[in-house]
Amino acid sequence: MSNKPRISRLTAIITQLQSKKIVTATYLAEKFGVSVRTIYRDIRTIEDSGVPVYTEEGKGYSLLEGYYLPPVMFTEEEANALITAAYLIGKNKDQSLVENYENAITKIKSVFRKRQQEKSELLAQRIEFRYNPENATTSKNLIKLQTAITDFKLLDIEYNSLENNFTKRTVEPFALYSTNENWLLIAYCRLRSDFRVFRIDLIHRIINLNENFTPHKMTFKEYFEIVYFFVIKTFYIDL
Predict the structure, then answer these.
(1) What is the per-residue pLDDT across 137-190, written as a single tens digit (0 to 9) for each?
(2) Which residue, among 71, 153, 150, has the nearest Cα to 112 in the 3D structure?
(3) How far apart are the C-alpha atoms of 159 and 165, rounded to whole Å?
(4) Is the full-model pTM beyond 0.85?
(5) Structural contact between residues 190 and 172, judged by C-beta atoms closer than 8 angstroms
(6) 230: helix, strand or coil
(7) Confidence of residue 191 (pLDDT cuts 50, 70, 90)
(8) Measured distance CA(99)–CA(49) in Å, rounded
(9) Is residue 169 within 8 Å of residue 218, measured between CB atoms?
(10) Which of 36, 43, 134, 168 has its Cα between 20 and 30 A from that of 204?
(11) DSSP string over 54-116
């Protein structure tokens, strides 16, 4: 990345500013293989060109709220990556993710140059994934849960465990992860007064209570460290 022409780097920096809430000079320097001092000069150049970059002291840079750039153009390799990702996500077992990504990729394709569109159509005919060959759908709530996580919305869920125990829970959604072809919801369960993990294909109903909960002062990484410590501690006590 260090040999990237400056004009291309400036364009890429603007794209980063447009796609993230805030970006640090250190992050940009590492991403593009240049010094932090070079990034400072790049930001000044971008500002001088009329792009309204907002500098938050001690934190980083962002674009002024409400400012939008014209749609970006994709390289052939980037376009191919998007088409490949579309097929991967198309095999996902959550219907809401598949439908929303299909809508998004259609909008993205609309900004492809004509030659890119032709090549993407050809590539689409030459890709196949054997994962989930029957296109089985086991859930449809992933996108709804993602929104609840980012909006800190309290949910009522009806859950039927693998042991066939049916319960109603009020939960504070915290995070999502995928393992063994299943999406899992990590949430603070008010019934158990602790964090619990729910397979989303076993959630039969979700009700948004239109009530916000106080965000948990913990990162996803910290959650896993706490869980790991608890498992190890329990293991040694049982010995």
Answers:
(1) 889 999 999 999 999 999 999 999 989 999 999 999 999 998 867 899 999 999
(2) 71
(3) 8
(4) no
(5) yes
(6) helix
(7) very high
(8) 39
(9) no
(10) 134
(11) EEETTTEEEEPTT--PPPPPPPHHHHHHHHHHHHHHHT-SBHHHHHHHHHHHHHHHTTS-HHH
Residues 189 and 168: their CA atoms lie apart, in Å, by 10
Report the distance separating Cα 18 and Cα 3, nearest Å. 23
Q: Which two three-digit tokens encode residue 2?
A: 């260090």
Length in residues, the chain:
239
- Residues 62-80 have pLDDT tens digits of 888 777 666 666 778 888 8
Structure tokens, 213: 């909960």
Amino acid at 28: L
Q: Which amino acid is at 133?
A: P
Token pair, residue 132, equals: 């989930």
Residue with tokens 């909008």: 107
- Cβ atoms of 155 and 207 within 8 Å: the answer is yes
pLDDT category, 234, cuts 50, 70, 90? low
**Tokens 């095999």, residue located:** 91
Asked if residue 2 has pLDDT above 60, the reply is no
Say if residue 237's pLDDT is above 50.
no
The token duo for 183 is: 């999406």
Contact 8, 32 (CB under 8 A): no
